[in-house]
Each structure stands twice: as C-alpha cells, then as structure tokens.
Amino acid sequence: MALSCIVALLLCTLPPPGGVAARDVPNDAGGKIAVTWTRSPDGSVINYRVLRQAEGATEWDTIGMAGRLASRYFDEGAGNGTPYRYKVLAEADTLQGESEPSGYAKAAPQWFNTGRIPSIIGTALILVIFLYTFQQARRGAKMFIRRIAGLDAVEEALGRATEMGRPTLYVPGLSTIDDVATIASLNILGEVAKKTAKFGTPLIVPNRDPIVYTVAREVVKESYASVGRPDAFNPDSVFFLTDQQFAYAAAVDGIMLREKPATNFLIGMFWAESLILAETGAISGAVQIAGTDAVSQLPFFITACDYTLIGEELYAASAYISREPLRLGAIKGQDYNKLIILALILGGTLLALAVDIRITDIL
Fold first, then answer.
1. Which of 237, 265, 317, 340 is deepest in the core (most CB within 10 A)?
2. pLDDT at 10 over 70
C-alpha cells in the first residue's frame, strides 16, 4: 500500500527546476535579488512559481510567476540586509515539480556603479582634451579653423553699410534664452556690435523674447564699451517687439522696408517666418547673412540669403570672428573629442562585424 502511494506520488510530479541560486543584484540601490534556475526538462511546463522564505521563518511565500521559457526572476521586494532563500516550482495543468531551496542571499545597496566606469573614463578623457586645448590656446599656439565664407563676409558687409550710411539689422532668432542657437546668436551679436561700434554704423536689434531682449541689450552695451565707444551705444537700438511669431515677422519686415538696412543678420532659431524675413530682406537689396541649426529652415536661408551658416558653423562663429584663444581652444577640443568618438564608433563597428564573421564561420 505504501509503495503504491509513493509510485502514485512520483507519477503526479514534474521534473523540478535545478540549480536554483540567489544573489544580490550588483550596482543598484538595494532591495533587489536575482533568482536563477535551470528549466525543467519536461515540455508540459506552463510556468514557474517563485517562492521566498526569510531566515528564521517557517513558511514559504509566493512572490511571483515566470513564463515557461524563463530561467531568471528578480525579487524587487527584498529588504536590505535580510537573508532570503528561494525555491522554484515548475507547474503544468495539475502537476508541480519543486526545486531544492537556494542558499541565502541578502540585498544591499552599492555606493559605486561599476557599470558606469566607461562613462567616467570617457568624461575624464574629454576634460583632459579640453584642458590641453585651453592650455595650448593660452600659450598662443596657432589654432586652425577652416575658412567659413559667411563669417569672412561679416566685416565686408558691415563696411558696406558704413559706406552707404545705412544701419545694420541683427535678428537673434525667435527662440528663448535656453535655446543653444539663441546663445550662439548672442555671442555673434557681441562680435558684430564691436565692429559696428568701431565703424560707427547704427545697429538695430529687434527681439521677440523679453529675456533675450534684456541679454541682447547688455551684450551690445558691453561690446560698445569694450572697444572704447560707450557713448555710441543707443539704448533704443535694442528693443522688444512682440512675442507673437508672425506679428514679429511683420514688424521686422517693416523695419527692413522703412530703414533700408544695408546688412541683415538672421542668426538663431527660426520657424515658418524664416522665408518671410529672408525674402523681404532680399527685396530690400540688403546683404544677408543667415545662420541656424533648424534643418527645415536652411533651404529657405540658402535660397534667399547671400551667406548661410549651417549647423555647427553657427556654434563656431563667435570663435571664428573674435579669434579669442579660449574660444578657439574650445572649438579644437570639441573637434578632437568628435574625432575620438568617431574612431570608437568605427572600431566598435569593425569588432561587431568581426564577431559576426566568426559566429558565421562556426555555424
């Protein structure tokens, strides 16, 4: 009788999962234990039930279910410092196979994420390169930047405005101060304002954003002071128009047609109004230098303007015009870092291809 019961019990169980192990998940904030096992060889298994028991407890608690192809489960409800052990039950329709319990494991937070070491090395490398290029720039090393036609034409365009006795119009885009294109535009505005101050050319700077207006006004004022012409700064030359997109475009068009500026700078972030501004400027006969990192607006500027700064040329413009060593050093540092990133991408691609070839050869 006893033998028949044992045989019946064996026939009513599944081959259990094997090699159940538990370990703390590394590089996390704690409270997480990974449970792994070897799947049951029985093909009728539907799912696995994961059980947990704290040290000193007498009962096992079900903490989760995993699919029939799973061999890992993360216990995200573990208390830090509490030892737990785990069992895994393979389940079919009416059958179960229970594994042996794992050893005890404790969840614990880690102060340092070792998975971020490559990021730290990369950041340190970038900083070292920037410090090196800054140091080289301070020592007066020659920094080469390729010729940018639109920036070479700045002085010529401002000279033309001076000879014609007409003002220069500078539109710093329509975006806010937190836009990178706006910041780059304000840097260029500072250099343009220095030259207009030297030449004695009136400068008109209409703004759409109140904060950009405030910053632009100070930039122009400081530029005039830096070249020894604070008296030539006209506070009314930098002004706020409106924050409405097309009302602003209409107002700037009116300035172009009434004031007849000899040179228009359209530099910064632009949207649908870009062609309206550039077309009106072209009709007025002004020399136009545009620049934006808005890819969708570049075709309009390239078509309607004399020179266009494309993408990163906009960010390099202030260094290019001013030839200030620190700015040139920053540009060179960026170039070196891009070169390293490009080399890493190329090397990684070649390694990935090599691995694929080896796997293909094996297969």
1. 265
2. no
d(C-alpha 361, C-alpha 363), whole Å? 5
Tokens of 62: 């079900």
Q: Where are the beta strands (DSSP E) in 222-301?
A: 238-240, 263-267, 287-292
Q: Is the dihedral of CA 101, 103, 109, 114 positive or negative?
A: negative
Retrieve residue 243's tokens. Answer: 């924050």
165: left (phi over 0), alpha (psi -120 to 50) or beta: left
CA distance 188 to 182: 10
Give the residue from 162, 170, 183 showing the smallest Cα distance to 239: 170
pLDDT in tens, 107-158: 999 988 898 898 999 999 999 998 998 888 888 888 887 888 888 888 889 9
Q: In angstroms, how far is the first alpha carbon of the chain from the final one? A: 55
Residue identified by tokens 């009136």 is 202
User: What amino acid occupies position 17?
Assistant: P
Contact in structure between 194 and 223 (CB atoms under 8 Å): yes
Question: Does residue 93 contact residue 46 with C-beta atoms inside 8 Å?
Answer: yes
d(CA 134, CA 10): 76
Q: What are the angstrom distances between the C-alpha of 28 and each of 64, 118, 122?
A: 21, 17, 21
Residues ≥6 apart with Cβ < 8 Å to 87: 20, 50, 51, 53, 60, 98, 99, 100, 101, 102
Written as one letter, the residue type at 358 is R
